[in-house]
Task: inverse folding
């Protein structure tokens, strides 16, 4: 066979296979978005320093009045360590220091009060790879996993390490 | 076309096929999980 034709056949085959690989990869990401992650699974992922995940908390940031009973309503009352506040997935409602930390291309976990799939669907559009925390902050706290309270503090430069 | 070049092309093709098989297996598992989650959601509400 003519070497030029043979080479073209090989390259064509490689291009087709690589294209298939990319489309399969995209399909995998889409499917992953639909499967929520449990609190225990997320804890294991966060404890692994080789896995880089950002946690976005979409609950309202802080209470407007002090007359409420539900402790899971606001970010400042309770949140996952290192979680970035992005109330209602609306940048205009997020604290300024949090906006700088949001990376739409990083693997993201969306945390709401109770893991509402509708809230997740709305927010997942803003991130390339996103998963919902099943049961939200309520499930995380019920599982006895570490939490923080207070205002958002961006990570210190050069701090490194995981958030747990 | 040299033998080395031919071997390298085949090597690339084999690696891509293995990657495709791996991804396909993962996709099948994810599809099963997705169906399970959707069923749970429908049953739940």
Result:
């Amino acid at each position: 066979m003519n070497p030029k034709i043979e080479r073209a056949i090989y390259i064509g085959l490689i291009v087709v296979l690589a294209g298939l690989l990319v489309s399969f990869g995209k399909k995998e990401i889409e499917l992953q978005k639909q499967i929520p992650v449990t609190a225990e699974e997320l804890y294991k992922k966060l404890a692994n320093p080789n896995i880089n995940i950002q946690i976005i908390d979409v609950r309202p940031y802080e209470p407007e009045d002090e007359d409420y009973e539900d402790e899971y309503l606001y970010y400042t009352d309770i949140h996952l360590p290192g979680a970035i506040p992005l109330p209602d997935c609306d940048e205009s409602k997020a604290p300024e220091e949090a906006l700088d930390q949001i990376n739409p291309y990083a693997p993201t976990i969306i945390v709401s009060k109770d893991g509402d799939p509708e809230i997740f669907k709305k927010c997942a559009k803003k991130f390339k790879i996103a998963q919902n925390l099943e049961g939200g902050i309520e499930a995380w706290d019920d599982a006895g996993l570490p939490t923080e309270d207070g205002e958002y503090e961006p990570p210190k430069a050069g701090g490194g390490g995981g958030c747990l | 076309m040299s033998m080395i070049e031919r071997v390298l092309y085949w090597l690339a093709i084999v690696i891509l096929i293995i990657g495709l098989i791996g991804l396909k297996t993962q996709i099948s598992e994810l599809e099963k999980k997705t169906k399970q989650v959707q069923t749970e959601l429908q049953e739940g509400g």
Remarks:
- Chain A has five helices and four strands.
- Residues 3-34 of chain A form the longest helix (32 residues).
- The first strand of chain A starts at residue 54 and ends at 57.
